[in-house]
Amino acid sequence: MGRAKLTPREESLKPIIATNIKKYLDEFNKKPADLQRGTGIAQSTISDYTSGKTLVNPGNVEKIASFFGILKSDIDPRFSDEWVNENEFPIIEKTISAMKQLEEPRQKIVLDTASSQLEEQKKEQTKVVSIKAEQQKRGIDLADLVDDSKVDWDKWVSFDGKPLTDEVKEAMKKALGKQLEDK
Questions:
Q1: Which of 20, 34, 79, 152 could cross-link with 30 by S-S, CB 3.0 to 4.6 Å?
Q2: Are 93 and 86 in contact (CB under 8 A)?
Q3: Helix axis angle, 32-39 relative to 8-27, nearest 10°?
Q4: Distance of alpha carbon 55 from alpha carbon 53, whole angstroms
Q5: How confident is the model at residue 4 (pLDDT cuts 50, 70, 90)?
Q6: Helix intervals (H) in the chain
Q7: Which residues form the HTH cro/C1-type domain (predicted)?
């Protein structure tokens, strides 16, 4: 059974990882044979990694990083905190894939549309923030939450059976609002 076909993103990692391995071989004055002896990874596999022919599997990334005494993310960006798994944003990946197939004038239309959508979204977020800020400045008017004339407070009692205090009533208004009103 063969290996799964690499995604374009995984393909783009091969030369990056190859460069990183070669950098640390140079930095630590080591040869690929030293890396093979220290990790147990086959010499041909190490050659494939350093030439960018093969993507390093996660287990071997760990072995290589341990050999050099560095972080896995120093070898392979997939282990970095900044790395975003391509499956986390499938719509973006599909959009990019489709855009790559478009001719440049059509790519520009997609870019212009996305830019205008982003601008519109920012405006909407600004409105929401300003409305919330205004409400916080004014405070909450409990009359907006519940109409006291529609609540029979005599039916409501505290856990010990005593009538509710005004403070408790205010807290209930804030928490329950219109749900307090008798139907």
A1: 34
A2: yes
A3: 100
A4: 7
A5: confident
A6: 8-27, 32-39, 43-51, 58-68, 72-75, 90-101, 104-138, 142-145, 166-176
A7: 21-75
Residue 1 has pLDDT above 50, yes or no: no
Residue recorded with tokens 């022919």: 53
Percentage of the chain surpassing pLDDT 70? 72
Q: What is the DSSP letter of 163?
A: B
Buried b / exposed e across 57-91, counting CB within 10 Å, b at 16+? eeebbbbbbebbeeebbbbbebeeeeeeeeeeeee
Question: Tokens in use for 164?
Answer: 């509710």
Residue-wise pLDDT tens digits, 81-106: 777 665 566 787 788 888 889 899 99
Region(s) of the chain under CATH 1.10.260.40: 9-83
| Protein fold of 9-83 | 434 Repressor (Amino-terminal Domain) (1.10.260)
Q: What is the helix (H) or strand (E) element at residue 78, kind and residue range?
A: none
User: 131 and 159 in contact (C-beta within 8 Å)?
Assistant: no
Reply yes or no on whether the pLDDT at 140 is more than 60: no
Measured CA to CA, the distance from residue 60 to residue 48 in angstroms comes to 13
Dist CA 150 CA 183 (whole Å):
8
